[in-house]
Amino acid sequence: MTLVARLSTLLIILLLEGCSQEKVQVIEGSIYGTTYSVKFTENIDKEEIHTLIKAELDRIDMVFSTYKDDSMISKFNRSECGLTGCASEEFLDLFWLSDEIHDKSNGAFDPFGIEPPHMYDISRFDNESWCKNLGDSCLESSGEELFEPFLFYIDIVSDRALLDFSAIGKGYAVDRISALIFENGISNYFIDIGGEVSINGTKFSEPWMWGVNNPFDSNSGAYRAFSAPQSGISIATSGEYRNPGHIWGEGPKDAVSITVIGENTTEADAWATAMYVLGIEKGLMIAEKEGLAVFFIKNDGKSVNSSEWSKIYP
Cα 203 from chain centroid? Predict the structure, then answer.
């Protein structure tokens, strides 16, 4: 009887472990020159979700990829489209967010590639007289709707503009996939696209764990590991320790790795790049001013972080 009871207990434990492992669904693939991984615990058809995810990633690629000749941004950079053909709503959203972070980072985040007069000076579109000075063809603006004047200005200066949203695009893709799977009944997930991460819910009532990669030894595991809050977290990491020279911008770059926790992964992605370009001293100053949670790994292996980071991970 005792033996039977012990065997029954062991069987229950094994069954529970087996069920837990089966419920962790993993979707993986390659996109944007890197890899993506989506993990979730809901009992939802994985292949059906993967089809939706891949379609959305490919769609985003056709908007923002500078490596595809027929993408929206490539056509814009070649001045091949007019007022309504160059900029979708999400294109404009990333443009204005990039403009905002460009200003707040004192130009460290600058994917615009255009000489003055800068088309990302939003005050221009609030000034009716400025619009009139361009001539009769300038579109009227009420000061509330900036879409048409913005497109007109793009049309004027596009021969000098080379937009590149690669430093914000992966984060945007993570946020889009987060919204997509949430709409399809998945609220407990871990999404990672090339180091830009969005986490929500739990892993079978336990927190998801995430870590900052060790930039000095890729085989040694995480430099530091953290548990994700159930309410969700958006994370992005920037550095050149695996791909030297791929981050544009002049600056001291005296940190080997930068990790930012943001309101969303799009913003975290952009700020991680900006912080890497700014360097530790200036980066910390702006992080404190803007209330950003930033974690710097210095070249000597030590780390330093902003006060907002300490509030999340004391």
Answer: 23
Report the DSSP pairing between strands 209-213 and 222-227.
antiparallel
* Exposed/middle/buried for residue 247 (C-beta within 10 Å: 0-12, 13-18, 19+): middle
Report how far residue 274's alpha carbon sits from residue 279's, in angstroms, rounded to the nearest whole number. Answer: 9
Rounded distance, CA 123 to CA 178, Å?
A: 33
Distances (CA, A) of 301 to 213, 217, 257: 12, 11, 10
Contact 277/249 with Cβ under 8 angstroms? yes
Q: What's the CATH architecture for 25-54+166-312? A: Roll (3.10)
Taking the CA atoms of 312, 96, 286 and 196 in sequence, report the sign of the dihedral they define. positive
- What gap in Å lies between CA 60 and CA 169, rounded to an integer? 8
Query: Which residues, other chains included, contact 32 with Cβ-Cβ below 8 Å and sequence gap of 6+?
Result: 57, 61, 65, 169, 170, 173, 193, 194
Kindly state the tokens that stand for 15: 């069954």
Question: Using CA atoms, how far apart are residues 29 and 145, in angstroms rounded to an integer?
Answer: 39
Q: What is the pLDDT of residues 105-156, one digit of tens each?
A: 998 998 876 443 344 343 333 434 434 444 444 444 334 344 444 444 444 4
pLDDT given at position 190: 98
* Extents of the domains making up the chain: 25-54+166-312, 76-160
pLDDT at 16: 37
